[in-house]
Amino acid sequence: MKKVLVVDDTKNIRMILTKCLELEGYEVLTASDGTQALELFMTNTFDLAFLDIKLPGVRGTEVLKRIRENGIKTPVIIITAYATVKNAVDCTNLGAVAYVQKPFSADKIRNVLMEFENSRLNSKNEENSENFILRAKAFLDANNYEKSLELAQKALVKDIENPEVYLLISRAYRGLGNEKSAERFYQFYKTFT
């Protein structure tokens, strides 16, 4: 079960978020101030955290700054009633993955969770050269040579010894009418086969 931390000084917000997250299958721990939040971050590993900016004692932005300084990479979703451009920029620079303005509904929280899960899946998939290759082939089949080339080049960075990648790059260049580059990558491909 995924574990999430909810940090907010308002009891009702903590209760609403806890109920929403539990219904989505999360184990939830809560903190009502920044000091409690820091203690929980130091003693637990979380898959996700919801963090209010305006907290008594240690502010939410300071909590975020300190956990990052300690190498804690937990994805953090900022929740605030005081949405400002400066707060959004500061929190994004500290690695916040989303920004939710109060008041919010259960549907809004579900949507944020879905976006977060989708972006995590996409980033995991994109780390894999096979995913780049599959997508490059699909774009090649659709005659979108530029996108195919872009994805094949990303696959090449991940897996420089895969002959299939050189062939894909060659075919994409050929589709773009760049015969010289197409031939060069085809020759690379031939050295592997």
Automatic annotation (TrEMBL):
Protein name: Stage 0 sporulation protein A homolog
A Pfam family per the record: Response_reg
Any one Gene Ontology BP term: phosphorelay signal transduction system
Modified residues (4-aspartylphosphate): D52
Keyword tRNA-binding: no
GO molecular function, one term: DNA binding
Domain of life: Bacteria
